[in-house]
Amino acid sequence: xxxxxxxxxxxxxxxxxTLGLVASALAAPEGDGSQPLLNKVVFVHQADExxxxxxxxxxxxxxxxxxxxxxxxxxxxxxxxxxxxIGGTDNLDFLNGILASFQTWEDDDLSxxxxxxxxxxxxxxxxxxxxxxYANGYNEVGWASxxxxxxxxxxxxxxxxxxxxxxxxxxxxxxxxxxxxQNQVDGDPDEATGAPGYFDVQDIMTHEAGHWLMLLxxxxxxxxxxxxxxxxxxxxxxxxxxxxxxxxxxxxxxPGA
Length: 257
Ligand SMILES: [Zn+2]
Prior knowledge:
This protein is an alpha/beta fold and 257 residues long. Helix content is 25%, strand content 21%.
């Protein structure tokens, strides 16, 4: 690896780890009494227009010396493979796109993270995105009308974790108010070129699956090619594949084969 590439990798990893720290700081204890030991983090993936309009999400300033810490929030070994359920669509292409998004992270040979989908006919709206939503013990991917609660959101992922920093549940909702497709050329999903006007299920879900690992959003322009870049857009398929910073973060939190 050249020195230049090594520097880029190191920088990207620093960004990933930095944002992990920020999310940790933002996490607030649940106060409803039913799950007193759980903390919650919410990631909102925003459409690109927010970036153009300068309405970037609030990011608390952190001293540079804290940029190299990792929040420590992760799946315990006993929870891997991470089981999840999919609901809200019977579109086989969409289902395959979601499965592929998790598989992309699992495929890295130098990380032990693994996922397992055990139901593709689950409830349409993840429990946590319903009115008076709650953590129900299942990791869910589904669709929900998000725009009224999260303006400009493409997708939202919620993570609950305990005082031991072990993740206990993750739910992701793709915004059903938006147009979706699973782009492919001549029936080959590996030949995606992007469909103008549509959000790509696999592209957006690969980003969200990164949050399932506790990788956080990168908002720096220099990180715009990373899967964990905090903005997405219609016609985009680049986030289907992982880049140096995504992989560095993955291997930091879940190292080894
Ligand atoms: Zn995100």
